[in-house]
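Protocol step 4 of 6: structure prediction from sequence.
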Amino acid sequence: MRVEYINPFVESAFNVLKEVLNADVKRGEIYLKPTSMSIMGVAALVGLAGDVEGRVLFDMTKETALYIAGAMNGETFTQLDELAKATIQELANMITAQAVTKLHDLGFKFDLTPPALFTGDNMEVSTNLGEVEALIVPMELAKGKIEVNVAIRERIK
C-alpha cells in the first residue's frame, strides 16, 4: 500500500474531527491489522474504486459515536437513532471527500461509494483484497477514539 494513498485520509480525518468536534484530537501510533477484523460497535465504511480498490473504515464504540453525533448536532444523544447514524455517515463522507479531493489533485482518479453504517456487538468486517493489510490510525478524542482503517491496493488490470 502506497503512503501517497494513506496520508490524505489521515490528514483529512484529523482536520475534520478537530473542526466538527471543536476539540483537541491526537493521532495515535499507526499499526497494521488483517483486513478481516472485529469492529468496536459502530463502523462507517466507504468503498473506493478506480485507479485503486479498497475501503476506508471509521471504527468506534457506540459511546464515541454518540459523543460525535452530539457534538456535530449541538445536542445530547442517548441512543443511536436515525439522526445519530446519519451524522456518523456524514462524518465519513466529509473525511473521505476531502481525502479524495487531495488525491485527485495529485493525479489519482477514483470514486467513492456512499458510506454504509454497521452497528452491533461481535461483528466482523472482511474484504476480498487478497494479501493487503489494513493500516490503522487511531484518533484519540476527548471521549474515546476513532480508528481510521484504510485498506487500499492498486487495481489489478
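Step 5 (inspection) to follow. Residues 104 and 110 are 8 Å apart (CA to CA).
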